Structure of TRAP transporter substrate-binding protein:
Amino acid sequence: MLHLKPVLPKISLIATAVAATILLSGCGDDAAPTGTVTLKTAFNQSENNPQYKALVSFSDKLESATNGRYKLEIHPNELLGDQRASLELVQSGAIQMAVVANPLVENFNKNFSVLAMPYVYDNPEHQRKVFTSGALDSLFASTKGTGFEVITAYTAGARSVYTKGAAVTSPANMQGKKIRVMQSDTMIKMLSCMGGTGVPMGQGEVYSAIQQGVLDGAENNEITYADLKQYEVAPYFSATRHVMVADLLVANENFLAKMDEGDRELFRKLAKESTQTQFELWDKALDGARQTAKDNGATFTEVDIKPFQERCKPLQSAMLTTPEQKALYETIRELAE
Ligand code: GCU
């Protein structure tokens, strides 16, 4: 039996119908492991996203390494609901995996917030080292008991502010600006430390909210900015690079427990390797995304990030309250060059 109990609260009726059809087709958590087991994987970005491509490569390698016993069935574009809904589906076992942004997992263990602190990573290479070093393994295992486990982390680059009207080059420019952030306390606080006002909202609503003037802009990486054509409504991209929020590949706990030990080890190993692949794909895709945005009228402005960093220092200290958070912060900083 499939457990469809966690209703998809935030998505449209059409999306709900599509999701229900997908969930009812093929095998679920209780299917007998004969033939190929397809691991339904929810993804909220498009097929162009380097994370999607890394998942495809992970699936191919897993299928070949397990002689066809396992492969992924990836559902992009929020087809299975937004990240909050997909995490619930993973917890219940209705699907096996999802990619969700780190702030969603902070609700289960506050220590995760260290992975999305403003300016905690110096650059992409530093973040890559942190994600591939094994330093996060015990943190990732800490959600066991809640229905899911974090398998690995993917980069979503550095987030910067983009607006309509004019570029934002200093905290003073940010004053009075309503900027969309992900649905998380940390992200709201981060926007205020930068001088503006953070408005929490799901990704799917951002374009029209800017268009209708509910927002002055948003903050995200260049790839999502270009892919969702947000340059059309907020053409001034200011490289504040204020935070590098991890995206996490999460898997249902029962599915992992039921896997044959050898297959589980292969699954874990190949998932971890997909992180390295994903960083490389991200790096290659960045210039193209910038160019697409520019070709469509976006202006990119370099920003002196020091004044933003200074203003965010108190937030950084306020975020490090438990000994575990402090230790994790130190571990991450030690991996900086
Ligand atoms: C990035 C990130 C997603 C997240 C999105 C957002 O694109 O990769 O996981 O959902 O930002 O701002 O909501």
